[in-house]
Amino acid sequence: MAEDPNLPLHAKFRLLEQGMSATTNALEKKADTRIQEFNRPSETVKHPDEANFGDLQFHQSAYKTQRNWVKLGDLSANVGRDVWVRARVHNVRAKGKTCFIVLRRGFDTVQAAMFVVPDVEYSADMVKYAGKIPNESVVDIFGTVSQAQLKSDALSVKNAEISVKKIFVVSASVPVLPFQLDDASNPEPKGEVKEGEATPTVALKTRLDNRWLDTRTLANHAIFRIQSSVCRYFRDYFLARDFVEIHSPKITPGVSEGGADVFKFKYFGKWACLAQSPQLYKQMAVISDLFKVFEIGPVFRAENSNTNRHMCEFVGMDFEMEIKEHYHELLEVLGDLFVYIFDHLNEHCKKELEAVRKQWPFENLVYKRKTPVIPFKEAIQMLREGGMPDIEELEDISTPAEKLLGRLMKKKHGVDFYIVDQYPRNARPFYTMISAESEDYTNSYDVFLRGEEITSGAQRIHHIPLLKKRAEECGIPLSNIDKYLESFQYGAYPHGGAGIGLERVVMLFMGLGDIRMSSLFPRDPKRLAP
How confident is residue 44, by pLDDT bands cut at 50, 70 and 90? Predict the structure, then answer.
């Protein structure tokens, strides 16, 4: 097959996937030549005062200046002033004696312009130099902020632009990107797409293989700012209520909570595993007279689950607290916690939520000030009446049943957020307190968001004989939890709590289609890098 001389370089990657070796070799040679041409050493600039353009010597903190650095989003307030900005080159349009660069930093985009000026001898070389800077390169620009001549809806800064006086490449990108950011910013098509009308998009696998590039899109940038805010509001809520933040070990002896879904490894000649949760340690913290504790940290599950909502490592947001009279005290805390988080996200993350919504449309989450709580038996009855007549009463609710229940709750109660209480004994870990009303049920609960579970919790067993009995029934060797059991011998407060998956909260709050979209560098059975 003859090589098309006009074939774009990014097509090389598609041809590689198709196994077109002959054309691929030619394209690789062509791409390598282009990269070498750009990276040919030009005069390196050691200090921004030494020249007007060029490649800055790689950053070694060799000097300090009093430069006036301004954020792109603040340029409209600096019209008429000379400023320094640092940003990425989003795209370059160079033609003849002009060069226009769209600069991007986070959510902000602005245009920088330069022209060949007859009485400025270096201007022609500067325009030529700027026109060859690859997209995604990091640049420092010094220039005068002026009123924008043309207002573009594609730019976040519409009223101002930069007239460039100096431009330096701080770190150059290779010219050939794994994918174009504009393609990665396009919404996924819905419904049937007619021939010739398809919009370029980027597959999730390609995105995750190049996560450092993928997170530069506005929607993904927003997702991880929202994720950060969820952690912040979780922490703020509990600190304001006199909870103590703890940090439990992630290397644990034997099995962590029970079952075989743990990552085992040798620990100085003994078997150890990565913690499935901070469960046992946060309980011990409560009975150590810390009374009310919370933690944000990694959780590890060796589950070979290749679904859109499971990962082998995720961030757990846990809390545990003393119970004075009834474990429903925990449900009140959980309901208030999430209302607090949702309210603050809606109030303080409007820009981020709209950036996500523009690429991945979602409906606003519907929730009430007082979170609806329905007993497990009532949920089973709703499912039987709603289309699952054969569902088991004393077994856990399956994923399809959870989603159906979500639709039924939305129809009956008009909410996307609710709690199911009193789960059956067979569906809960060994440390879950048995219900006083029936030994078939427990003082436990799940919290649901848009028809999917985001946390499980319960009152814990603090009575040693019952705790031992339940551990043996669940196949947990008592020798693996001997210190945990011993901690209850010295007087234990009745207590309970919950463990919340951060990524799942973020995913479901915005109705994202895959939990990997809300994980910066996800780990699942098929992914260990980057």
Answer: confident
Quote the CA–CA distance of 352 and 220 in Å, as a whole number.
9
Residue of 295, 352, 453, 503 marked catalytic: 453
Is residue 12 scored above 90 in pLDDT? no
The ranges of the chain annotated as CATH 2.40.50.140 are 44-171
**Taking a C-beta distance cutoff of 8 angstroms, is the pair 493, 287 a contact?**
yes
pLDDT band at 270 (very low <50, low <70, confident <90, very high): very high
Residue of 90, 104, 221, 309 marked catalytic: 309
241 a catalytic residue = no
**DSSP letter for each residue of 287-353:** IIII-EEEEEEEEE------STT--SEEEEEEEEEE-SS-THHHHHHHHHHHHHHHHHHHHH-HHHH
Query: Looking at residue 26, what is its pLDDT?
Result: 41
May I ask the CATH class of domain 218-518? alpha beta
301 an active-site residue?
A: yes
Which residue spans of the chain are classified as CATH 3.30.930.10? 218-518
Instruction: Output the average pLDDT for the chain.
Output: 90
- 303 is an active site residue: yes
Whether 310 sits among the annotated catalytic residues: the reply is yes
pLDDT in tens, 231-242: 999 999 999 999
Q: Using one digit for the tens of pLDDT, what is the confidence trace for 166-221?
A: 999 999 999 999 999 999 999 988 766 666 667 899 999 999 999 999 999 999 99
Q: Is 504 a catalytic residue?
A: yes
pTM of the predicted model as reported, rounded to 2 decimal places? 0.89
Long-range contacts of 273-278 (CB under 8 A, 24+ apart): 274/250, 274/300, 275/248, 275/249, 275/250, 275/251, 275/299, 275/300, 276/300, 276/301, 277/316, 277/318, 277/499, 278/246, 278/248, 278/316, 278/318, 278/499
Catalytic entry in 28, 303, 322, 452: 303
Q: Which of 221, 428, 504, 516 is catalytic?
A: 504
Q: b/e for 96-111, b at 16 or more Cβ within 10 A?
A: eeebbbbbbbbebbbb
Fold of the domain spanning 44-171: OB fold (Dihydrolipoamide Acetyltransferase, E2P) (2.40.50)
